[in-house]
């Protein structure tokens, strides 16, 4: 699967057990989105631990106002392109909207993303009973799962927009319970998006699987950003939790390297990138 990037510096491929070891040892995990071969190659060379083919491509690549129009065929196509640029970074891909509506559809989607696309893991949003059933079914059939809680973009209409989640005590306790539930269902990784930093810390301490934050504070086991946000090239206002790492640097490679260094050192996210 990871054989195309012959010019990348030699390093051991990132694995799920390796990510758990990083959590146990307190080494922060670096995750970044990629949607094509060239940027995937840049991530791999920079030593990024996880490349995420997010359905965020619907917004930053296709120009939609949400992730909802992205199809499974789109995700398979972009995943395969990214896979050809990687030699060591772990490849994770989103299950697009409604591909997780029941177990049969989720299994078909997961099989395509892994078999045709070359993904090592699929990401799924939410923790409703049927999502927990889907997580269990996928992992039982050796398709690793990354769960995604908090501000889940596929629920944008239910939330009434891209709103921070878990600020009220009841909502925070529910998210904490959901984090434990997705771990119990078999998830190996957990993305936490758009929640108070204090809740990100609570959840990270409460689960045994690594947590990856995006607007979830500095205490998660790792961080992820949308590549275009991190490079400052997304049209419109940049999210509060992001930072333009290309500013003051002369190349994309330097920006990605700076992002990776700041995540690993704990310099990013800073207080101004967090929610309370």
TrEMBL record:
Pathway: Cofactor biosynthesis; (R)-pantothenate biosynthesis; (R)-pantoate from 3-methyl-2-oxobutanoate: step 1/2. Homodecamer; pentamer of dimers. SUPFAM superfamilies: Phosphoenolpyruvate/pyruvate domain. Belongs to the PanB family. This is 3-methyl-2-oxobutanoate hydroxymethyltransferase. Keywords: Cytoplasm, Magnesium, Metal-binding, Pantothenate biosynthesis, Transferase. Mg(2+) binds at residues 55, 94, 125. It catalyses: (6R)-5,10-methylene-5,6,7,8-tetrahydrofolate + 3-methyl-2-oxobutanoate + H2O = 2-dehydropantoate + (6S)-5,6,7,8-tetrahydrofolate. Catalyzes the reversible reaction in which hydroxymethyl group from 5,10-methylenetetrahydrofolate is transferred onto alpha-ketoisovalerate to form ketopantoate. The keyword Magnesium applies. InterPro entries: Pantoate_hydroxy_MeTrfase, Pyrv/PenolPyrv_kinase-like_dom, Pyrv_kinase-like_dom_sf. It is an enzyme of class 2 (transferase). It is found in: Cytoplasm. Its EC number is 2.1.2.11. The gene is panB. It comes from the Bacteria. The active site is at residue 193. The keyword Metal-binding applies. One of its GO terms (molecular function) is 3-methyl-2-oxobutanoate hydroxymethyltransferase activity. Its main location: cytoplasm. Its cofactor is Mg(2+). 3-methyl-2-oxobutanoate binds at residues 55-56, 94, 123.
């Amino acid at each position: 699967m990871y054989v195309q990037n012959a010019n990348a510096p030699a390093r051991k491929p990132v694995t799920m057990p390796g990510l758990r070891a990083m959590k146990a040892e307190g080494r922060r995990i670096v995750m970044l989105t990629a949607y094509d071969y060239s940027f995937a190659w840049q991530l791999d060379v920079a030593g990024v631990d996880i490349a995420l083919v997010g359905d965020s491509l619907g917004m930053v690549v296709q120009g939609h106002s949400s992730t909802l129009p992205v199809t499974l065929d789109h995700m398979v196509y972009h995943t395969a392109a990214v896979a050809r640029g990687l030699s060591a970074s772990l490849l994770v891909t989103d299950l697009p909207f409604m591909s997780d509506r029941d177990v049969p559809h989720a299994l078909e989607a997961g099989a395509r993303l892994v078999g045709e696309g070359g993904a090592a893991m699929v990401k799924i949003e939410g923790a409703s009973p049927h999502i927990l059933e889907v997580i269990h079914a996928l992992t039982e059939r050796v398709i690793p799962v990354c769960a995604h809680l908090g501000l889940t973009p596929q629920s944008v209409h239910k939330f009434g927009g891209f709103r921070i989640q878990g600020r009220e005590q009841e909502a925070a306790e529910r998210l904490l319970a959901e984090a434990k539930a997705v771990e119990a269902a078999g998830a190996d990784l957990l993305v936490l998006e758009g929640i108070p930093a204090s809740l990100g810390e609570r959840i990270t301490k409460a689960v045994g699987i690594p947590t990856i934050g995006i607007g979830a504070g500095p205490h998660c086991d790792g961080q992820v950003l949308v590549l275009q946000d991190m490079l400052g090239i997304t049209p419109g206002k940049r999210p509060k939790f992001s930072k333009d790492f290309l500013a003051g640097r002369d190349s994309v490679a330097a920006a990605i390297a700076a992002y990776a260094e700041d995540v690993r050192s704990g310099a990013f996210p800073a207080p101004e990138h967090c929610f309370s």
